[in-house]
Amino acid sequence: MQKTSGDKPKQAVRAKSILLRIGICVAVLLLGLVGMLKLATLKKPPPETRPVEQPIRVRGLTVQPEDVTVTITGYGEVRAVTRVSLAPEVAGRVVTVHPRLEPGGIVPRDAVLFAVDPRTYAAAVAEARAAAEQLQATVLRLEKQYAIDRERRKTLARNRDLANAEFERLKQLYEKNHVGTQSGVDKAEQAYNTTVDMAEQLDQAVALYPFHIQEARSALKAARARTMQAEISLENCRVKAPFRARVASESIDIGAHVSPGVAVVTLVDDAVLEIQVPLDSRDVRRWLVFNDPAAGVESRSWFADVAQRPCRIRWTEDPQGPARAGRLHRVVAFDPQTRTVTVAVRIAAEDRNGFAGDALPLVEGMFCTIEIPGKQLANVFRLPRTAVSYEQTLFLVTEQSRLKTVGVEVAHTQGNTVFVSGGIVPGDTVVVTRLTDPLENVLLEVTR
């Protein structure tokens, strides 16, 4: 299709419109650029300032050396030293029971806890005493008869001599002088033989008397022993408390039948308590004080006697309460599995009772913390445990109030306290505020 002459003016108008628009855009850009340059000439640069270092606020502690007694801390349960289980020694029916015989009850020394029906045992005592009295009478009778028969033996000996003399006289008269008769001689001989036989029988009886008396005396001793045994059984019908005791358990009632050897009552003596405390064998070797072995220990096959030093005891349920006094008593055992040494701490009755404002005394079953004094550390620095890291380093404050990291030697750690033996000197200021990865030589603001 061919363009007409009318199209050419339209194209010229469009070209002028485009050029006008371009010109307007260029003019706007030039005006903006000129404005920006004008504004740039009006802006002033800010004044130059130097950066100021901000210090870290910490708490410092100026250290001085001191001599410190090391305390070994352990834990253990309070137990009574004396605990006994009582069983009747005779069988029978229970007829009386102490009114305080119940768990937790306190019974005085020698109080009758319970009694078994004594009638059978009383009858046995009466029977044994009667048998002993009968044998006593037998001994007395034999001793009396022994004395009588010894006197009779003298008489029979005299009669025997007389009968012999009479027999010899009649025999001589008959044989030499033909006086008398053979019958008379025979009767005299018979009388003589009878007296000889009686004398021999009496001699035999007298010779056996000491044996019969000894047998009777032995039987009397046996009867007296049976009497004593019966009396003991009668006495054992009443079971008494061997000491002032607390009843830990009981299983007995009136009318119940008890048997010998079957425990029915458990008593506890609370006068002396004990805590067995397991300690790390390394702490025991390094810090616990033992007496000189040459002072009375004959063999080194066991631990020497520990120095019986006073200890401090606190109930774990009342850690802020008053401490009770105990005393280290002995080494109990060594456990090869845990490498622990168990020691015993004794607590006397006057040291375990409650203090003013403290409602509970120290009693059996309480779990306690025990502080045992050991050897002494000389010239060490006392610091909070938070001041020393696990790598045994701490932060010092320099004279320019700068932070400095130093390594130290830790002699002992005791609770929340660390005792340092090397790495710092007297007068150093140690940072006791816990810091996390501080920059070395950072500026510090120290408060005391």
Order of helices and strands: HEEEEEHHEEEEHEEEHEEEEEEE
Count of helical regions:
5
Percent of residues in beta strands: 25-35%
**Rg of Cα set:** 57 Å
Main-sheet strand order equals: 2-9-12-11-10-13
What's the gist of this structure?
This protein has 448 residues and is of the alpha+beta class. 35% of the residues lie in helices and 32% in strands.
Molecular structure report:
- With 448 residues, the protein is of the alpha+beta class.
- The chain folds into 4 domains: 59-68 and 378-447, Beta Barrel (conserved putative lor/sdh protein from methanococcus maripaludis s2 fold); 88-117 and 241-262, no CATH class; 120-235; 269-375, Beta Barrel (Elongation Factor Tu (Ef-tu), domain 3), CATH 2.40.30.
- The chain is built from 5 helices and 19 strands.
- The strands form 4 sheets. Strands 2-9-12-11-10-13 form a 6-stranded antiparallel β-barrel. Strands 6-5-3-8 form a 4-stranded antiparallel beta sheet, with no helix packed on it.
- Helix 2 (119-176) runs antiparallel to helix 3.
- The radius of gyration is 57 Å and the shape is rod-shaped.
- The model has no long low-confidence stretch (mean pLDDT 86).
